[in-house]
Amino acid sequence: MTYELPDLPYDYDALEPHIDQRIMELHHDGHHQSYVDSANDAREQLEEMRSDGEYDDIKAVKRQLAFNLSGHANHSIFWENMDPDGGGEPGGAVADAIEDAFDSVDTFMEEFSEAAKAVEGAGWAMLFYDPLADELIIGQMESQHLLAHQNTTPILALDVWEHAYYLQYENNRGEYVDAWWDVVNWDDIDERYEAAIA
User: Fold this and answer.
1) Which of 39, 45, 122, 189 could bridge 161 with an S-S bond, Cβ 3.0-4.6 Å?
2) Where are the alpha helices (DSSP H) in the chain?
3) Per the structure, how many domains does the chain have?
């Protein structure tokens, strides 16, 4: 079994004017495909190591797999977390969970936005379900996988690597983050939350 690039659940231009068609083409077909290809390459290298019984490069290959598989997983959530008819406010069980964890939807959105804008370098802002505390938490992820919260389930992912916005927003990450809320797919996020707590 190998990793495969998922199809976008909408057309490349469907998120305009919030996210430009050309960004979506490059981001999905270029960047995400590269993570898939590199993760598969790392798997092949590991299979060769097992076959040969030689593990001299295992640290580098494991690092390659962690980075690229995380990129594949994060992007697969990111695409589904957006919808041309998105935006507005959450509903369902996730809305109640957000109210419980953050006191209000507005407070949640403010904290999530500030976390996204403050990611150092390239990375992600994510909303996770934490089963240990049985609540939602917001995290920052540097690169694809650094600072990840162990044993949590990501239910909302925002890519703040420059490739996600630079062609349209240049170096104004904040404007991109603010615009992104208009395409957030709350139905998908509620489904992910329901699955996480099941």
Assistant:
1) 122
2) 21-25, 33-52, 58-80, 92-102, 105-117, 166-169, 173-180, 186-197
3) 2
CB 142 within 8 A of CB 121: yes
In tens, the pLDDT along 89-140 reads 999 999 999 999 999 999 999 999 999 999 999 999 999 999 999 999 999 9
Distance CA 173, CA 166 (A): 8
Q: Which domain holds residue 159?
A: 92-197
Taking the C-alpha atoms of residue 195 and residue 187, their distance in angstroms, rounded to an integer, is: 12
CATH number at residue 57: 1.10.287.990
Q: Are residues 26 and 96 in the same domain?
A: no
27 and 68 in a single domain? The answer is yes
**Both structure tokens of 198:** 């099941």
Residue 193: pLDDT band (50, 70, 90) is very high
In a domain, 7, yes or no: no
